Each structure stands twice: as structure tokens, then as C-alpha cells.
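C-alpha cells incoming
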């Protein structure tokens, strides 16, 4: 069934590419829940969804937002969220070029990013589960932590997930904080 869905996603992705899209990101909320399956066949299904694409391909592994079941599940994960540890080696070997991770206010140990050697890493520096606006300093610090494990030419600062649930004015301010924090990080870390 996963391969059948991957085939449908591939048809949609190819159509988007034909329309001129430069980057296609697949969102994958199951890779941190079904880690063994993700490593065994999930990454193959993801690659099938991206098959034949010449644009940049990315995957976002989501921990989920706004649904009480997700909130409760995250509380059960403890102080360290190590789910990525099981799927990152398979993603590192995959044809997917970029991996998008939730970083700020998550419990994912940043050193796990080392397991994505050779990939562009999109590091979430903006929390989408809160309307509190990050400071440029907070964003720069999160980027600095990630730079300990990802070469700067492979690191891209982004949001933890989409900003669609946010009120527009909050989303705009969060994006401004992202830009200011990235500029501050560039001045600090080169």
C-alpha cells in the first residue's frame, strides 16, 4: 500500500516539477513512530515518491502539532527524542537531498544530525507550537548548536514545521526573527 501511495505522490511531484517547482518536500510523520519500518521499507517508498525528479528533493520528519494525541505522545517520549537515530542512517544513504528537522524546543539531541552526513540539513529554529516570537539571539544560538554537527554549507535555517496554524501577524514576526537570527549567525559563525 505504501508503494501505491508513493506512486501517486510521484505523479503529483512530477506534475509540480513540470510546473516549475524548484524544491519538493515530502512530509513524513510516521518516520519517528515506526522507526524499524521506516528504515526497512519507508525510505524506499519515499525514494519511489521522488523517482525521476530532477529538482531538489527534501523530507520533513514531523513530530506533529495541535492534536491532543500528539501532545500526549510527545510527553511520553522523555527527555531525549532519539527516534531519528534509527532512520537517519537510511536517509543518509537515500537519494533524497535534504532532511528537515525540528530543533528548537524539541528534545532531539542535536548530535544526531551527524548521522545525516552528505545531506543538506534544514534545521527548525522557529517553534510552530507557540505564538511566542523567538529572538534573533535564540535563532542564532540554535543555528550555532547545529553547526557543531552540520557543515555550514549544508545547513539551512527554517521553521520546525509549517506556520499555517499561526495567526498571520505572528507568522510574519516569526519569519522576521528567522531572518534576523540567520543574519546574526552569519556574522558570528561566518
Amino acid at each position: 500500500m505504501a508503494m501505491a501511495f508513493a506512486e501517486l505522490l510521484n505523479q503529483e511531484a512530477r506534475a509540480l516539477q513540470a510546473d516549475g517547482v524548484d524544491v519538493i518536500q515530502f512530509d513524513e510523520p510516521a518516520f519517528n513512530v515506526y522507526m524499524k519500518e521506516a528504515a526497512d521499507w519507508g525510505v524506499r517508498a519515499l525514494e519511489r515518491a521522488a523517482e525521476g525528479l530532477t529538482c531538489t528533493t527534501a523530507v520533513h520528519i514531523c513530530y506533529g502539532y495541535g492534536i491532543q494525541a500528539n501532545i500526549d505522545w510527545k510527553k511520553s517520549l522523555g527527555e531525549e527524542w532519539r527516534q531519528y537515530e534509527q532512520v537517519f542512517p537510511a536517509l543518509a544513504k537515500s537519494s533524497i537531498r535534504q532532511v528537515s528537522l525540528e530543533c528548537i524546543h524539541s528534545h532531539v539531541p542535536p548530535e544526531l544530525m551527524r548521522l545525516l552526513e552528505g545531506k543538506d540539513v534544514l534545521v527548525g529554529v522557529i517553534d510552530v507550537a507557540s505564538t511566542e516570537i523567538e529572538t534573533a539571539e535564540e535563532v542564532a544560538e540554535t543555528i550555532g548548536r547545529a553547526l557543531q554537527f552540520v557543515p555550514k554549507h549544508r545547513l539551512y535555517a527554517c521553521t520546525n514545521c509549517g506556520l499555517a496554524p499561526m495567526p498571520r501577524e505572528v507568522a510574519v514576526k516569526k519569519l522576521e526573527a528567522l531572518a534576523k537570527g540567520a543574519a546574526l549567525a552569519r556574522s558570528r559563525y561566518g
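note: Residues 128 and 163 are 6 Å apart (CA to CA).
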